[in-house]
Amino acid sequence: MPSVMTKSLWDSRRSLAGFALGTALVGAMYAGFYPQVADGAMGEALEGFSPAMREALNMEDLSSAAGYLGSSVFGIIVPLIAVIYGIATGTRAIAGDEEAGYLDLLLAHPVARTRLLLHRFLALTIGAFALAGLVWLAMLAIRSGAQLDTVSVTQFTAQCLALALLATFFGTAAITIGAVTGSKAAALAGTAVLGVLTYAANTFATQIGADAARYVSPFHYYIGHEPLRNSFQWADLAILTAAIALLVSIATTSFNRRDLSS
Q: What gap in Å lies between CA 214 and CA 217, rounded to an integer?
């Protein structure tokens, strides 16, 4: 039978294309507003935010390209859509097929559970990197026209690589919850709650005096050390990769042990 990974990518081609194009276009649109922001057009709007809120949302330096992109485009908009893609794809990977009755049919063929899960994970990863790659191309396409030249190609590459790993992390978390429970609702709800809590931990930990909380958040390793200013943060990328590998290990072990007939 054909590769499960290839089949998974083919079956999800429309949703992947929609997410990737949508993320790239929305990111490029908001990035294109930078010249107006740099000219002070956002000054009055920011007056309503307290200093603590500006710090939490990383809105203290909107005059620089890296500061603006890090607070809005890559701080909120693009990662939100990328995480939604990861969660939606990861939820369907195991739990979605199991609830639909397709998983039993698939496993009736000579396909080991480990192979199935790993191929679904690889399809998720390829999709996440494709999405991040399209965002990277969109940023480079508008870089000169939107006055974003102070952010180098390497710095955009570093941030988009972190974006791909962030989407993969949440997608893998959804796969893991689905592999453990067999419930699509549990995978979707559990990963959504994880996303909200970890985003809040990274954003508001300092304001509530719980600095250590941000170190358990994948968002901290995604953007905490500002790849748009400081280029590749190899330690952060390694931590995200290790967390993904741990989740894959848990998912594989649980999926192989669970009685799918119950």
A: 5
**Range in 108-112, 211-215, 227-231 the model is least confident about:** 108-112
User: Which residues fall within 8 angstroms of residue 170, CB to CB, at 6 or more apart?
Assistant: 83, 86, 87, 90, 191, 194, 195, 218
In the chain the first and final C-alpha atoms are separated, in Å, by 27
Task: Provide the token pair at 174.
Answer: 């959804």
Residue 68: burial class (beta carbons within 10 Å; 0-12, 13-18, 19+)? buried
Asked if residue 139 belongs to a domain, the reply is: yes
> How many domains in the chain?
1
d(CA 221, CA 235): 8
Does residue 209 belong to any structural domain of this protein? yes
pTM value > 0.85? yes
Domain interval for residue 48: 4-257
Q: Look at the block and give the residue holding tokens 């500002």.
A: 226
Element (H, E) at 57: none
Within a domain: 262? no
Judged against a pLDDT cut of 90, whether residue 48 lies above it is answered with: no
**Does residue 48 form part of some domain?**
yes
User: Is the torsion defined by CA of 222, 27, 187, 130 positive or negative?
Assistant: negative
Amino acid at 215: Y
- As given in the structure block, the two tokens for residue 207 are 């304001």
Q: What is the mean pLDDT of residues 141-160?
A: 96
CA 230, 234, 235, 239 torsion-angle sign: positive
Q: What is the mean pLDDT of residues 126-138?
A: 98
Tokens, residue 18: 């929609």
